[in-house]
Amino acid sequence: MSGATDPVLPGPVPPGGRLLAGAAACCRTLAVLLLVAMTVLVVGQVLGRNLLDLGMPWADELARFCGVALVFLCVPLLALQGRHVSVELVPMALPAPARRWTGLVVELCVLAFALLFLLGLYRFLGRAWKFATPTLGIPNWLFYAPAVVAMALLALVTLARLVALLRGETPPGSDQALP
User: Fold this and answer.
1) What pLDDT does residue 8 have?
2) What's the whole-number mean pLDDT along residues 5-14?
3) pTM higher than 0.90 for the full model?
4) What's the number of domains the chain is made of?
5) What is the C-alpha separation between 109 and 115, in angstroms, rounded?
């Protein structure tokens, strides 16, 4: 990994370069906006119900969409920075070459998860794309779009991390587990 820093994400340029870092940063920005929207919706719904005797079932559905979308959109950024929750007890007990193999196996498992998730979404949306959410009537393909984008980016990030490991580089977050 080069010593260059990235203006979008702090620290060295992550695996996959500026393009993946920029996409992950866009996901982060969108996730923050969704968090703000979700907060406004929930507070507005509570105030409307308790102060104005006004029910807003659409606000609950939209807040749920915002919450689910923001969680998915943070996944690629966390993977790119190596900040997902991980158990390092086993890798740290292994000799250095075995730690590198463990890192490769972990990245391959994450890639398999992302690809299986995308396949499942493809099969699900193949049947459900024509339906809409009950209250707002948001098309299902739009409702699930953040998950599709996030898992596709996760697959790309994981591929970049795998390439970095195969080149002998240490991706971010792998400092403790790899030599």
Assistant:
1) 47
2) 51
3) no
4) 1
5) 10
